Automatic annotation (TrEMBL), chains A, B:
NCBIfam families: PRK06187.1. The lineage of its organism: Archaea, Methanobacteriati, Methanobacteriota, Stenosarchaea group, Halobacteria. It comes from Natronomonas aquatica. Residues 15-393 form the AMP-dependent synthetase/ligase domain. InterPro entries: AMP-bd_C, AMP-bd_C_sf, AMP-binding_CS, AMP-dep_synth/lig_dom, ANL_N_sf, ATP-dep_AMP-bd_enzyme. Belongs to the ATP-dependent AMP-binding enzyme family. Keywords: Ligase. This is Long-chain fatty acid--CoA ligase.
């Protein structure tokens, strides 16, 4: 036996419930605001473990959840892993066939489901062989009309609040989450006790998202999505107050919780905060307690950072991936930028940020070389570290593609500036590879969409014999626009900011950009429907690659 | 392969030297103040690794240091562990026979030694078979008169600043430190890569000793003593500026470094800060940059906390052990105490504090039961966690005594108050076990020494047939004191604060309390020289134990 004891989650809760027995856990439910203490929470995790044991859950078994953010979901977060089982949080926004695939791939034995999500789960489970033998527990006091299920409170009732938590190995799988891949089936990521412990510690550092005992933490990012960025664990390690916003919170719900519970740190995707900003236009909004809004998922517009700055709230950009547990970077302001002007500071804060301690990265270009940190050169971001998985669950095909020597190939194409701030400029599968160099489809799209007569634009790489790929722009003009004039104006616009070899070889006007289920541009469909090499015939410019200049 | 990549120290330096290449490392040496950057530091750790490899150091070999706090010593901190070898920091204050035992037990192959410490090491090494085959490198540009040794800069010279750092297993031993046991030979503690990684992360949390990139960190606690409480690693993980105070810094040296380098966080034992406080009486001292003084080793007097408070500096009590890497507790003020009056806050801040996240503890009394957290009941503190060792190096005898089921029995007798703050009241071997209850020798000593006619006092337990042990006080009166009167006054003093069964059965007057090599009262010697059961004959009070009342 060398080294210290195993790294597991349970001691975080031990500390919180013993040193801070009266600190609150608050939850918005369909009954209104419910609240209890760490001490009661600790008791209920033990009752749940006893109930799961009686049901037949053993070490190594997988338990699913299909729930929003609330205290009962949080109870599964510590109870299931600490008894040695594995918590599999299922994303209810996925299409039925993905849910079926996931439940089958993970081999879930029991699924906890919200009352409001029971119809969706019932639909996915109906006549699906993947759900054979799976039982359901409905969160709350009542059963379900759609599913044969035990009410959660009945499931817990009569069980002891003492449980002999086992001493687990740190390699014990504790959690599981599937990536919502845009192509093919979702890929499962297993989180060991050690990975979740590491992620908690790394997040808790001043370089991550530090939390203290007087903080009030509200994760708006869903608990079905990479453990709500690990906030339920980090907040417990800090013995902070937890606030869970419940099913489908609207801006008014969030505003009420922030004001009434004194939320100091919250986290969510940009659209959540856009909603809050709109709400604030017509309503009084007291943000005096709020310190930090963590934004991830996609980039926050600069104006959003400024809006919160004006109100004394720090908008902290963060970036991560399911494969990373998930936190990878935060865009904290470096001490070297303290004396820079506000615009220069914003330039950095609007990026994805710097790696948190103990992660490492490489940024690899087309030729397999590491790119220079100059804020301009592109490469694919590779990362590794104690919180980064080194494989997908039962997916050797995907492993070969996405991992190399312990490194995760993130699939994100980035620049790194002189200060070490990462900026995502494209996805690796969308970046346009022209003459050995990369062109960012995202940058071209944003530039084109800045034209007032353009409603949507997507730029994709079209195969090209000489240059490998060349960019073609698909543009949806606003009604009645003269596309002949628009052609010229778009090209002029692009010439201002980009080298000639970046300019699209062709602009195609279409009625609508195809979208994915979650509303994003589906470049896969564009490529399938619209592009073939004939688009480019006779149109290759002389300056198609920089090496050729 | 399950989970993330191994937890090792090297990525901390990777991040600091890549994201903060120009951040400084400053060192006071016999040549004055020397300074360079993380980037140069990183280069020199690679040069050192190449030099060590050429010398013949392999993965798993042990490399000793016999040095004060300076940049070259810090170079060994990352270089040796990151090449897979093990850094063994030797305490030069130990007696020669302990140094010989340690070098033999650890099997050191090469020892880095300070110029100023070479005479001491040469003395220990002279004609000692334990030192056979051990080579020496003297820190600095020059050789040594006392030892046949290579100068450090010569050792490094000509080596490449590139080194292919291996991907290490997290169980790889990385460090080693010996406890300076008061009885028997020192006991070795091995630190794996994982333990040091865990300790770094746990220390870096807001609940530990958080550090940021704008911090300037000066460990005064020696780097030969439990890695200077891990500060060189934590400061690097935070990419803070390092300041090393060099050999035997006096208060003026420390004051100069604090003022000129803008030190924000420093750490040391109380006597260091007493020295600084005395210096400040006669000299201007600018503490405006200083945020936190971390105090451990022994308890800081309340007046010291107040003195720093008056100057806008937080004195943060911390407690730890060599076996714990070492940090165990910090006496940060809980949010629940924010609104209490200053005296109540001080009551808590003057204790050793609360466990940092992911450590667990038990406090076990004489009967093997956990004591109540009421601030009064005593028990021995047991701890466990990822940074706490579970064994001594090659010492099965000591392992059996000090470890149980992964728990370290700290040997400290403590109370825990309702808020969870730990206070050390005695050492387990010194606490007096009377009638199934424990009496704190330390509390009685402090109470007796509060009498103006007492210069020193030690209280030890003397074996007793009925009560197991009974306290006897050994008192050194100030010159010319009437000991007959003193007897009465001491007993009156104790009666005010303690139950009758705590009162010593006898007071013996002696000329001097025997001391250990480091100047502490040697109760072992008191027991050996002075006590036998006859001291207590006919003196047993009726109230010798509370159960008997």
């Amino acid at each position: 036996m060398s080294g210290g004891t195993d790294q597991t989650l349970r001691p975080f809760l031990w500390r919180a419930s013993n040193l801070y027995p009266d600190r609150e856990i608050v939850s918005r439910t369909h009954r209104g605001i419910e609240r209890y203490t760490y001490s009661e929470y600790d008791d209920r995790t033990a009752m749940l473990a006893n109930a799961l044991e009686e049901y037949g859950i053993d070490e190594g078994d997988r338990v699913g959840t299909f729930c929003w953010n609330h205290h009962r979901h949080f109870e599964t977060y510590f109870s299931v892993p600490s008894m040695g089982a594995q918590l599999h949080t299922i994303n209810p926004l996925l299409p039925d066939e993905h849910i079926q695939y996931i439940v089958d791939n993970a081999d879930d034995e029991l699924i906890f489901v919200d009352q409001s999500l029971a119809p969706k789960l019932a639909g996915a489970a109906a006549e699906a062989p993947e759900f054979e033998g799976v039982d359901f527990v409905v969160m709350g006091e009542e059963g379900s009309e759609e599913l044969e299920a035990t009410p959660y409170e009945t499931f817990l009732e009569g069980h002891s609040a003492d449980y002999e938590w086992p001493d687990l190995d740190e390699d014990q799988p504790a959690g599981m989450c599937y990536t919502s891949g845009t192509t093919g089936n979702p890929k499962g990521v297993e989180y060991t006790q050690q990975m979740l412990w590491s992620h908690t510690m790394m997040t808790l550092t001043p370089q991550g998202i530090p939390m203290e005992d007087d903080d009030v933490i509200m994760p708006v990012v869903p608990m079905f999505h990479v453990n709500a960025w690990g906030f339920p664990f980090t907040a417990t390690a800090a013995a902070a107050k937890h606030v869970y916003p419940g099913p489908s919170p609207d801006p008014e719900d969030l505003a009420g919780l922030i004001e009434n519970e004194g939320v100091t740190i919250t986290a969510g995707v940009p659209t959540v905060w856009l909603g809050l900003m709109e709400y604030a236009e017509d309503n009084e909004l007291d943000l005096s307690a709020l310190d930090t809004v963590v934004v991830g998922g996609s980039a926050a517009p600069r104006s959003m950072i400024e809006w919160f700055d004006d109100r004394g709230v720090e908008l902290l950009h963060a970036w991560g991936m399911t494969e990373m547990s998930p936190l990878g970077t935060t865009a904290q302001l470096k001490y070297t930028l303290d004396d820079e002007d506000y615009e220069t500071q914003l330039d950095h804060r609007a990026k994805q940020g710097m790696l948190i301690p103990s992660l490492e990265m490489r940024v690899i270009d087309e030729s397999g070389e590491e790119v220079e940190w100059n804020g301009e050169d592109f490469g694919e971001l590779w990362v590794r570290g104690p919180s980064v998985t080194q494989e997908y669950f039962k997916r050797p095909d995907a492993n070969e593609e996405d991992f190399e020597d312990g490194w995760l190939k993130t699939g994100d194409v980035v620049t790194v500036d002189e200060e070490g701030y990462i900026k995502i400029v494209d996805r690796a599968k969308d970046v346009i590879k022209s003459g050995g160099e990369w062109i960012s489809s995202v940058e071209l799209e944003n530039a084109i969409m800045a034209h007032e007569d353009v409603s949507e634009a997507a730029v994709v790489g079209v195969p090209h014999e000489r240059w490998q790929e060349r960019p073609v722009a698909f543009v949806v003009p606003t009604g009645g626009t003269d596309t002949g004039r628009l052609d010229e104006e778009i090209m002029d616009l692009l010439r201002e900011d980009y080298p000639k070899w970046w300019l699209p070889d062709a602009i195609e006007y279409i009625d609508e950009i195809p979208k994915t289920a979650t509303g994003k541009f589906s470049k896969k469909d564009i490529r399938k429907e619209y592009t073939d090499e004939s688009l480019l015939e006779g149109s290759v410019p002389e300056e198609a690659a920089p090496d050729d200049d």
